C-alpha cells in the first residue's frame, strides 16, 4: 500500500540549498559527488540546456509513460524518487501527474539540482519537492522513507555496476513499490534516409558510432561491469517482480516547431563535436552542411526535418 509522505518527509537537504557555493564549473569538476567519470568527459551541468530542452520536447512521451505507470501502481504513490533526475524537468512532470506525491530528485550534479529546484518553484511544486545531491546509488541511503515509485530515466546506464545499483534501488522501495527504468528504445530519426546530400543512410552510420561510444563510456565508468541488458531479468535478480515493459513514441512530423528544430540542431551539433574521426570525409561534409545555418539544405532551414524517437520503460514491483 502506498504510504503518505506529504509535507514533512524527504531527505535531510530538502532542497533548501540556495546558499550553496556555486563556483563556475569547468570540465571534470566534482559536482556534489558525481565526477566527470563518464568516458566522454561529460560535464552534466554544461549539458543542462540540452537536457532541459530535450525533456521539455519529450513531455508528451513522458505523459504517456506516467499515465501507464499510474494505471500499474497500487494506490497513489506517496513518495516518488527521480534517480538521476538531471535538471528535474521529468521530476516536475511527475509532481504534476501525481498531485498527492512528494517528489525527490536525486543526482550527482548539484548545479542541475539547483535548476530542478528553481523549476519546481516556478511551477508551484516547491512544497512537495526536494533534492538530494550525491552519487547513485549510495545517495539513496539518505532518503528518510522508502519510495513508492523510483524512476530512473536514462541514468542507470551511467552507473558502473548496474546490477548492484538495481539491488540498491530495490532496497529503497516500499513493499508494493515500483521501480521504473527508462532504458533503450530506438535511436532517433530526424531526416529521411536520403535527404539529398552525400551517401544515403547517414543517421544509421551515426547510430553505429554512437553505439561504440556508449560502450566505451560504460567500460570507462568506475567499477564498470558488463551486463547483458535484460532489464526484466536484472530487476528480478534484485528481488523485484517484473511488471511490464512498454515503449513510448515521440512523433513530431515535419514541419517542426522552432523549439523542436533547435533541439535537432543542438543534438546533431553535439554529436558532430563528439564524433572524433569516426565518420568518413563524405559523411562529415554532409553533417557540416546540415549544421551550416547559411545553407538552405541545413537542418536550420530545410522543411523535411522531423523527430521520431521511442523510449522503453521497464517496471518491476517490490513484493509486499
Ligand atoms: C542522461 S542524464 C538524464 C537526466 C534525466 N533523467 C532526464 O531524463 O532528463 C543522466 C543524469 O544522471 C546523472 N548521473 C550520472 N552518473 C551519476 C552518478 N554516478 N550518481 C548520480 N547521478 C549521476 C547525471 O548528473 C545526469 O543528470
UniProtKB/TrEMBL annotation:
User: Among its keywords, does the record have Transferase?
Assistant: yes
State the signal peptide span: none
Entry annotated with the keyword Hydrolase: no
Highest taxon, organism lineage: Bacteria
Question: What are the start and end residues of every segment in region (Disordered)?
Answer: 1-40
Tell me the Gene Ontology biological-process terms attached to this UniProt entry. methylation
Molecular function (Gene Ontology), one example = methyltransferase activity
List, as start-end ranges, the regions of compositional bias called Basic and acidic residues.
10-40
- Ranges of residues in domain Methyltransferase: 80-177
Its keywords, alphabetically, are:
Methyltransferase, Transferase
PANTHER family, alphabetized:
CLASS I SAM-DEPENDENT METHYLTRANSFERASE, METHYLTRANSFERASE
Q: What is this protein called?
A: Class I SAM-dependent methyltransferase
Source species, please? Streptomyces similanensis
Amino acid at each position: 500500500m502506498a504510504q503518505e509522505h506529504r509535507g514533512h518527509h524527504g531527505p535531510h537537504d530538502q532542497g533548501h540549498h540556495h546558499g550553496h557555493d556555486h563556483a563556475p564549473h569547468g570540465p571534470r569538476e566534482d559536482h556534489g559527488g558525481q565526477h566527470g567519470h563518464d568516458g566522454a568527459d561529460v560535464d552534466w551541468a554544461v549539458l543542462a540546456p540540452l537536457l532541459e530542452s530535450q525533456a521539455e520536447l519529450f513531455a508528451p512521451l513522458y505523459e504517456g509513460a506516467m499515465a501507464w505507470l499510474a494505471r500499474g501502481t497500487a494506490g497513489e504513490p506517496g513518495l516518488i524518487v527521480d534517480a538521476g533526475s538531471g535538471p528535474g524537468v521529468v521530476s516536475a512532470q511527475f509532481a504534476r501527474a501525481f498531485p498527492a506525491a512528494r517528489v525527490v530528485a536525486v543526482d550527482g550534479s548539484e548545479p542541475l539540482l539547483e535548476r530542478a529546484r528553481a523549476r519546481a518553484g516556478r511551477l508551484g511544486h516547491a512544497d512537495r519537492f526536494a533534492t538530494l545531491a550525491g552519487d547513485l546509488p549510495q545517495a539513496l541511503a539518505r532518503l528518510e522513507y522508502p519510495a513508492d515509485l523510483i524512476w530512473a530515466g536514462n541514468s542507470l546506464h551511467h552507473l558502473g555496476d548496474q546490477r548492484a545499483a538495481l539491488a540498491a534501488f530495490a532496497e529503497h522501495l516500499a513493499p508494493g513499490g515500483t521501480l521504473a527504468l527508462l532504458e533503450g528504445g530506438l535511436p532517433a530519426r530526424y531526416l529521411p534516409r536520403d535527404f539529398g546530400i552525400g551517401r544515403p543512410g547517414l543517421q544509421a552510420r551515426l547510430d553505429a558510432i554512437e553505439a561504440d561510444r556508449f560502450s566505451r563510456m560504460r567500460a570507462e565508468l568506475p567499477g564498470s561491469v558488463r551486463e547483458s541488458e535484460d532489464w526484466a531479468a536484472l530487476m528480478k535478480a534484485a528481488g523485484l517482480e517484473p511488471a511490464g515493459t512498454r515503449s513510448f513514441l515521440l512523433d513530431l512530423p515535419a514541419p517542426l516547431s522552432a523549439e523542436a528544430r533547435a533541439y535537432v540542431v543542438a543534438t546533431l551539433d553535439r554529436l558532430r563535436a563528439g564524433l572524433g574521426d569516426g565518420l568518413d570525409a563524405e559523411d562529415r561534409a554532409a553533417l557540416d552542411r546540415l549544421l551550416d545555418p547559411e545553407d538552405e539544405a541545413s537542418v536550420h532551414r530545410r522543411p523535411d526535418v522531423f523527430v521520431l524517437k521511442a523510449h522503453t520503460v521497464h517496471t518491476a514491483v517490490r513484493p509486499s
